[in-house]
């Protein structure tokens, strides 16, 4: 009897310990939100939120201080748009090709090879962008600056391709075979089946992969910190040095800004802006997945 | 008839187009890695591996950097492995499908999408400042552990889910308690899958740069760390530091260090893929 009670106690304790492990994830989220909010609030005591949202100059580290986030936003927007316009079409094409055209053996060789692109550390991609892509692009665009949004965005796009292709392929392969067979039975080619049946049927999954790719690109740090420059500039010109939100945080962290100063708090103001964008995107994608996931059981 | 021809043509065209998209990716990868090897292989030497960093590119080495990476790798594994697997077990085996587990699930999906640099800000405030760990290896490892926790949890859950319920039911029918069933049956049966997920997550942590820069890992550390409370640098930060310098000699150093970093990452991923294949072959439910 006593042994039984012991065991029950032990079981209870183990369950509690495991629950604590799971709760750490909640604590992490709470920690992130609290820390960003607290530091951002003290930042906005010094700087008006109107200036933060409307000024087109971001110079917290200069003597002439100005705190407008717009240049960092435009930099982030620019590199993200370039990256997505590479990653989405190429990634989707690969997903459709692998799912509809490639033979099983070919696919089982190609998928791990594509995964290699996804495991290369981002700092290495930064090196590629700065040392290979920028000099290469300069042969076509002589006025291209040594640091620019174009090559950083392009390389970021290449990095995100396997992300898009594997998520989209998952979505495509979960479409039941009967739909495809019905389409072939009507005399459609593979191309027609892919674009008129498979892609529409898997659209929610494909949209989710696109949204997550955007969120990825917004938060990507090292490529832009290395290859896009450190000059916050309110522009959409991809050939000049710019700065993204993430690259700014890196720039401040590399220097020695005194703890507690307004300059120190700017990284949290920039951080909360970044967090809000990715949070919204991630939740939209989660919502689409839960709401529109086609259930073909 | 014309219509069919154009359909056939589109079909063929897309086949070529799809194949060229893949070739484009592979070619880029080959060019990138070829360039790195071409630039950096000549610089790789025993001296390079065992020298401290220096103002002079030719005398600089990556000794402190790879020792730092090793420290971070071991500590991050020690912290994230039990926590992640524990949380995964709880969510998969105990978490009744109530509101709490729904919340945990959404929360983990969200955490997986938080940019790594935000984890750096969290680590900076919580570990470096509030817990007064300073710019230590421990603070870095804790930050990275939080970063990869969602990946480990998700892969642990997938591995546990793959164990057929008949095994669990048989164990319970023989009088085993819930934990005995998990410990003696479910975990051993899913261990290969769990390990694969953990290794992939750790290899991601090894390549991370941004969060460690934010918590204040240094670019220049003239000594080898000897305890978890020492200041440190890691390979990616050393690479970033060298890439940021204008002199060409430092770019060559960076390329050589990248070869070492890529070797570590590819090795870990190779082990993970090998384990996954072996595990899938061995167990055929």
Automatic annotation (TrEMBL), chain A:
PROSITE patterns, A to Z: ABC_TM1
Annotated PANTHER family: PHOSPHATE TRANSPORT SYSTEM PERMEASE (PTHR42727:SF1), PHOSPHATE TRANSPORT SYSTEM PERMEASE PROTEIN (PTHR42727)
SUPFAM superfamilies: MetI-like
NCBIfam families named among the record's database cross-references: phosphate_pstC
Membrane topology: Multi-pass membrane protein
Protein name stated in the entry: Phosphate transport system permease protein
GO cellular component: plasma membrane
Chief location: membrane
Gene3D superfamilies: MetI-like
GO function terms (MF aspect): phosphate transmembrane transporter activity
Positions of the ABC transmembrane type-1 domain: 73-285
Transmembrane segments: 17-38, 69-95, 116-137, 149-172, 193-214, 263-281
Record GO biological process: phosphate ion transport
Locations listed in the record: Cell membrane
Family classification: Belongs to the binding-protein-dependent transport system permease family. CysTW subfamily.
InterPro entries, alphabetized: MetI-like (IPR000515), MetI-like_sf (IPR035906), Phosphate_PstC (IPR011864)
UniProtKB/TrEMBL annotation, chain B:
ABC transmembrane type-1 domain span: 66-272
Protein's membrane topology: Multi-pass membrane protein
CDD domains in the cross-refs: TM_PBP2
Recorded GO MF terms: phosphate transmembrane transporter activity
A Gene Ontology cellular-component term: plasma membrane
Main location: membrane
Subcellular location(s) per record: Cell membrane
Assigned keywords, A-Z: Cell membrane, Membrane, Transmembrane, Transmembrane helix, Transport
Gene3D superfamilies xrefs: MetI-like
Coiled coil: none
One annotated GO biological process: phosphate ion transmembrane transport
Ranges annotated as spanning the membrane: 16-41, 61-91, 103-127, 133-154, 194-221, 250-275
Pfam families named among the record's database cross-references: BPD_transp_1 (PF00528)
InterPro entries per UniProt: MetI-like, MetI-like_sf, Phosphate_PstA
Family, per entry: Belongs to the binding-protein-dependent transport system permease family. CysTW subfamily.
Record-given protein name: Phosphate transport system permease protein PstA
């Amino acid at each position: 009897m006593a042994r039984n009670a012991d065991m029950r106690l032990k079981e209870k304790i183990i369950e509690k310990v495991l629950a604590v492990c799971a709760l750490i994830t909640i604590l992490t989220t709470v920690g992130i939100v609290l820390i960003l909010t607290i530091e951002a609030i003290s930042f906005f005591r010094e700087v008006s939120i109107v200036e933060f949202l409307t000024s087109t100059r971001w110079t917290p580290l200069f003597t002439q201080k100005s705190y407008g986030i717009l240049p960092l936003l435009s930099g982030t927007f620019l590199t993200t748009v370039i990256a997505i316009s590479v990653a989405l079409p190429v990634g989707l094409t690969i997903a459709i090709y692998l799912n509809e055209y490639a033979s099983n053996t070919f696919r089982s060789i190609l998928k791990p090879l594509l995964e290699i692109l996804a495991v290369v550390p981002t700092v290495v991609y930064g090196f590629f962008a700065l040392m290979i892509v920028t000099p290469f692009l300069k042969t076509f665009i002589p006025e291209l600056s040594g640091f620019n949004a174009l090559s950083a965005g392009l390389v970021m796009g290449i990095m995100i391709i396997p992300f898009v292709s594997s998520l989209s392929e998952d979505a495509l392969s979960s479409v039941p075979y009967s739909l495809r067979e019905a389409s072939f039975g009507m005399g459609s080619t593979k191309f027609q089946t892919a674009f008129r049946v498979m892609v529409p049927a898997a659209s929610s999954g494909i949209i989710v992969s696109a949204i997550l790719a955007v969120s990825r690109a917004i938060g990507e740090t090292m490529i832009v910190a290395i290859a896009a420059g450190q000059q916050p500039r309110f522009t959409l010109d991809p050939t000049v040095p710019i700065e993204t939100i993430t690259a700014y945080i890196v720039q401040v962290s590399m220097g020695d800004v005194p703890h507690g100063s307004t300059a120190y708090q700017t990284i949290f103001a920039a951080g909360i802006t970044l967090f809000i964008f990715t949070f919204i995107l991630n939740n939209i994608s989660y919502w689409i997945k839960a709401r529109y996931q086609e259930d073909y059981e | 008839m014309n219509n069919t021809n154009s359909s056939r043509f589109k079909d063929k065209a897309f086949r070529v187009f799809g194949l060229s998209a893949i070739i484009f990716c592979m070619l880029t990868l080959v060019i990138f890695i070829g360039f790195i090897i071409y630039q950096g292989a000549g610089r790789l030497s025993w001296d390079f591996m065992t020298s401290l960093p220096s103002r002079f590119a030719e005398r600089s080495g990556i000794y402190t950097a790879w020792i730092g990476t090793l420290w971070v790798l071991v500590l991050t594994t020690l912290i994230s492995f039990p926590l992640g697997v524990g949380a995964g077990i709880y969510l998969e085996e105990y978490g009744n499908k109530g509101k709490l587990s729904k919340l945990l699930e959404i929360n983990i999906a969200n955490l997986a999408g938080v940019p790594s640099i935000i984890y750096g800000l969290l680590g900076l405030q919580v570990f470096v400042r509030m817990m007064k760990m300073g710019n230590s290896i421990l603070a870095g490892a804790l930050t990275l552990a939080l970063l990869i926790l969602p990946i480990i949890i998700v892969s642990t859950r997938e591995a546990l889910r793959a164990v057929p319920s008949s095994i669990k039911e048989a164990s319970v029918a023989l009088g085993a308690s819930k934990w005995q069933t998990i410990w003696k049956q479910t975990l051993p049966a899913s261990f290969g899958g769990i390990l694969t997920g953990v290794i992939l997550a750790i290899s991601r942590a090894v390549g991370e740069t941004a969060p460690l820069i934010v918590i204040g890992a240094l670019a220049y550390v003239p000594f080898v760390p000897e305890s978890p409370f020492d200041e440190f640098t890691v390979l990616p930060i050393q690479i970033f530091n060298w890439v940021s310098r204008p002199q060409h000699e430092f770019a060559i150093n960076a390329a050589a260090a990248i070869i070492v970093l890529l070797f570590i990452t590819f090795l870990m991923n190779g082990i993970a893929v090998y384990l996954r294949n072996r595990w899938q072959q061995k167990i055929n439910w």
